Amino acid sequence: MMSPSGANPRSCWTKKRWLVLGLLALVALVVWYHRPQWKRQEAQRTQLAQLRQRLQALQAQNAQLQKLQDQLADVQRYVGQEKEQGALLPVDRLVAHLASTFSQQGLQIRQFRRRREQSYEALREVWVDVECQGTLEQVLGVLGHLESSPQRLWIEQLQLVPDQQAPPQVRCRMVVRGFADNSGNSG
Known about the structure:
By secondary structure, the chain is α+β, with helices and mostly antiparallel strands. The chain folds into two domains: about 10-85; about 90-180, 2-Layer Sandwich (Alpha-Beta Plaits). About 55% of the residues lie in helices and about 25% in strands. The protein has helices at about 10-85, 90-105, 135-150, and strands spanning about 110-120, 125-135, 155-160, 170-180. Strands 1-2-4-3 form a four-stranded antiparallel β-sheet. Strand 3 and strand 4 (about 170-180) form a beta hairpin. The chain is rod-shaped and about 135 Å long.
């Protein structure tokens, strides 16, 4: 049968089918042709995302590094000021200063020894064990002198015991921690 327009309906359907099949083949060809390029682009996107993450991590590390450099500059300024004020002595002079402080107050030193030292870039931390004997006023004089000293000294431990053999006297044991100049010293 013929359609009123004079075209065979089967031939229209066949033409449409070939047209659809041709379009599908064209799409398949385009997909097949561009697929490797799309894969490369996806790999590049993944690589770009990884590089962005790495950049963010490096920026965070850079910020931390800058903070540490600022802190180091602050410490170096502080150490410089302490040196200018005479608060940081070389280790041997610091220990000699401690010994003379005890002697000047009239205390009998029974033991005086460095316990340990810890070196830092610009400072050296020193612990000194001191055992002495004298009156309570003499011990208080030493504590007052250490408190008012420009050197950075801390009393880590303090033990006072009355001396049974010499009643007005006390036996004193203390651990003094101080900071000394580390320049010129090997750590």
